[in-house]
C-alpha cells in the first residue's frame, strides 16, 4: 500500500476527500511511492478561513517571538538535514549531495527570516514641517499563498513561507503535485518548531487548486515559481483579482566564454552548470556562447561531457539523476530530435540512455550541440534537461546582443581574465543575475533573487529585503502634538513651505 499524503488544514493533518489521487512515482523506477489526493473546493475554503483566523492572532505576536520561531526552525532543519536530503532524493531522483544542497539553500532563507526585526524597521524623520514628525511602520498583509515547482521542493517553499510568516502573515502552500513529500515534511518540522498550528496550511493538487487560490478574495498576495505559460496565467488572473503577485518563470541562461579565460575552469564549470540536477534548474546554463578562438575548446568539452554518467541517488558516483517524469524525458527527446532535424550538429546524444538495474528510469544522457542558431527550437525553448547548446560569435558585443535579444533574463555568466570586459558585460547585459567567472550566480538570501524580463512577472522579488516589502504594507504616520492652550485657525490651503 502506498502512503497517502495528507494536507495540513486548520492545524490538522487530514487526507483529502478527493477520490482520484495523483500517483507520486520514483523517477528512477516508476514505482508508486505515494498517493496525493487533491484539495476539494470545501477543503480550500476551510484552509483559507483557518489562515484568516490565524492571521488575526499572529499579527499581534511580538517580532522577537516570530524571529525565535525561525531560529528554532532553522535548528530543527539542520538536525534533520540528512533525513530531508534522502527524502528529497527519493522524491525527485536528485543525487544525495544535490538534494542536500537543495535543503541547505532553503535553510539559509530561514536564517535570513530569523533576522526579521531589522528587516521590518520603518523610517522616521523629525520636523517634516514645524513640530511635525513622520514615521513609517511596516505591517503584515494577511493571508498569503505560494505555488511551487517540482525542481526545488525544499528551497523554493522555504523562499516563501518563513519570510511571509516572519512578517506576521499566515500562509497557504500549494507545492508541486509531482513531489509533495518534502514540502509536507518541512511543514511537520515547522509545527514541531512551535509554529502556531494554523499559521501554515498545505494543500495538494494541480491546476484546479491553483485557479481557486488565484481568485479567492481573502488571499492578499501570491508567490509563484514555475514555467512561463503558467507564470503568465498566474500573474494575469491574480492581478485581475487585485492581488499582489510575484511570478518567477522559465529561463535560457547563457555562459559567455572569452578566449582569455582559463580553459580548464570554463570546461568544468560549463559541464557542472548544464548537467547538474539533470539540467532541471531555472539557473542551469543551457547555452554556451564561445567568442572568437575559444570555439576551439568545443571538441574537448564534448570529450569531457561524454564521461558523465547519470544514476540512482544512492549511487555516490552518479553525476546526476533521472528527469522528474516520463513526460519530461519525452519532451527533452523531442527537442533533441528537432535540433538534429533543424540542422544543428549533435556532438553527444543522450536521448537513448539507460542505467544498469534501472531500466524504467527517466534517463537522459549528457547532450551537446554546436552550430545552433537563434532561430532553432533548441535555442528558443527552455529544454530543462542535461543538454548544452553551443553558439559561436566573433565578439563580446555580439554575445551581449544575442543575450539581450533573448526573451528570458534570469541568469548569465562571463568567463574571462579581463576586468574591463567583465565591467562592460555586467553593465550592458539585460539579465537580472550576472556571474563573473561564477556559472550559476544565485544570490544568497540577504540579497534578492532578481530574474528580469520573461523570467519574472511582478515588481518585488524573492527573499532579501524585496520579499519583506512584498509580504507587508507600509503605514506612514504623521504626528503633531499641540500645546494645551494653543489655538489655530482653519487651514484651507496647501502649505508652500
Ligand atoms: P509548472 O509551471 O508545470 O508547475 C508549477 C506549479 O504550477 C505547480 O505547483 C503546478 O501544480 C502548477 N500548475 C501547473 N500547470 C498549471 C496550470 N495550467 N494552471 C495553474 N497552475 C498550474 O513548472 P514545473 O515543471 O513544476 O517547474 C519547472 C519550471 O519552473 C521551469 O520552467 C523552470 O525554469 C521554472 N523555475 C523557475 C524558477 C525561477 O526562479 N525563475 C525557479 C525554479 C523553477
From TrEMBL:
Keyword Oxidoreductase attached: yes
Q: Does the keyword Methyltransferase apply?
A: no
Domain Aldehyde dehydrogenase: from-to ranges: 15-477
Pfam families attached to this UniProt entry: Aldedh
Task: Kindly give the InterPro entries that the UniProt entry links to this protein.
Answer: Ald_DH/histidinol_DH (IPR016161), Ald_DH_C (IPR016163), Ald_DH_N (IPR016162), Aldehyde_DH_dom (IPR015590), MeMal-semiAld_DH (IPR010061)
Protein keywords: Oxidoreductase
Task: Identify this protein by name.
Answer: CoA-acylating methylmalonate-semialdehyde dehydrogenase
Amino acid at each position: 500500500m502506498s502512503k497517502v499524503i495528507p494536507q495540513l488544514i486548520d492545524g490538522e493533518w487530514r487526507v483529502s476527500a478527493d477520490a482520484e489521487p495523483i500517483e507520486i512515482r520514483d523517477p528512477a523506477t516508476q514505482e508508486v511511492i505515494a498517493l496525493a489526493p487533491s484539495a476539494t473546493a470545501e477543503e480550500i475554503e476551510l484552509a483559507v478561513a483557518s489562515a484568516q483566523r490565524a492571521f488575526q492572532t499572529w499579527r499581534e505576536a511580538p517580532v522577537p517571538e516570530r524571529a525565535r520561531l525561525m531560529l528554532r526552525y532553522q535548528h530543527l532543519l539542520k538536525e534533520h538535514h540528512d533525513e530531508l536530503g534522502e527524502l528529497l532524493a527519493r522524491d525527485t531522483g536528485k543525487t544525495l549531495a544535490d538534494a542536500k544542497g537543495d535543503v541547505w539553500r532553503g535553510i539559509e532563507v530561514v536564517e535570513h527570516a530569523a533576522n526579521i526585526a531589522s528587516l521590518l524597521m520603518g523610517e522616521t524623520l523629525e520636523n517634516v514641517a514645524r513640530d511635525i514628525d513622520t514615521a513609517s511602520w511596516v505591517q503584515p498583509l494577511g493571508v498569503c499563498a505560494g505555488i511551487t515547482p517540482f525542481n526545488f521542493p525544499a528551497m523554493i517553499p522555504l523562499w516563501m513561507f518563513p519570510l511571509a510568516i516572519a512578517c506576521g502573515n499566515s500562509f497557504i502552500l500549494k507545492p508541486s503535485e509531482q513531489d509533495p513529500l518534502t514540502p509536507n515534511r518541512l511543514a511537520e518540522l515547522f509545527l514541531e518548531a512551535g509554529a502556531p498550528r494554523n499559521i501554515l496550511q498545505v494543500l495538494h493538487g494541480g491546476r484546479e487548486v491553483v485557479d481557486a487560490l488565484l481568485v479567492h478574495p481573502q488571499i492578499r498576495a501570491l508567490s509563484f515559481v514555475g514555467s512561463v505559460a503558467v507564470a503568465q496565467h498566474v500573474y494575469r488572473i491574480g492581478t485581475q483579482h487585485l492581488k499582489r503577485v510575484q511570478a518567477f518563470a522559465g529561463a535560457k541562461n547563457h555562459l559567455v566564454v572569452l578566449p582569455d579565460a582559463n580553459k580548464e575552469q570554463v570546461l568544468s564549470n560549463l559541464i557542472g552548470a548544464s548537467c547538474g540536477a539533470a539540467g532541471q534548474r531555472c539557473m542551469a546554463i543551457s547555452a554556451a556562447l564561445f567568442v572568437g578562438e575559444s570555439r576551439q575548446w568545443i571538441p574537448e568539452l564534448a570529450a569531457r561531457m561524454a564521461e558523465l554518467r547519470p544514476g540512482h541517488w544512492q549511487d555516490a558516483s552518479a553525476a546526476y539523476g533521472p528527469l522528474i517524469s516520463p513526460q519530461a524525458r519525452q519532451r527533452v527527446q523531442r527537442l533533441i530530435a528537432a535540433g538534429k532535424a533543424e540542422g544543428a550538429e549533435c556532438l553527444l546524444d543522450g536521448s537513448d540512455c539507460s542505467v544498469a538495474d534501472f531500466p524504467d528510469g527517466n534517463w537522459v544522457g549528457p547532450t551537446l550541440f554546436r552550430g545552433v542558431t537563434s532561430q532553432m527550437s533548441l535555442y528558443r525553448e527552455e529544454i530543462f534537461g542535461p543538454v548544452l547548446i553551443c553558439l559561436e560569435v566573433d565578439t563580446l558585443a555580439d554575445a551581449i546582443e544575442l543575450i539581450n535579444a533573448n526573451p528570458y533574463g534570469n541568469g548569465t555568466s562571463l568567463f574571462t581574465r579581463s576586468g574591463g570586459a567583465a565591467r562592460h558585460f555586467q553593465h550592458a547585459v539585460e539579465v537580472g543575475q550576472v556571474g563573473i567567472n561564477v556559472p550559476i550566480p544565485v544570490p544568497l538570501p540577504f540579497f534578492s533573487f532578481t530574474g528580469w524580463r520573461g523570467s519574472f512577472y511582478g515588481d518585488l522579488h524573492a527573499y532579501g529585503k524585496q520579499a519583506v516589502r512584498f509580504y507587508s504594507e507600509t503605514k506612514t504616520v504623521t504626528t503633531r502634538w499641540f500645546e494645551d492652550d494653543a489655538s489655530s485657525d482653519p487651514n484651507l490651503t496647501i502649505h508652500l513651505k
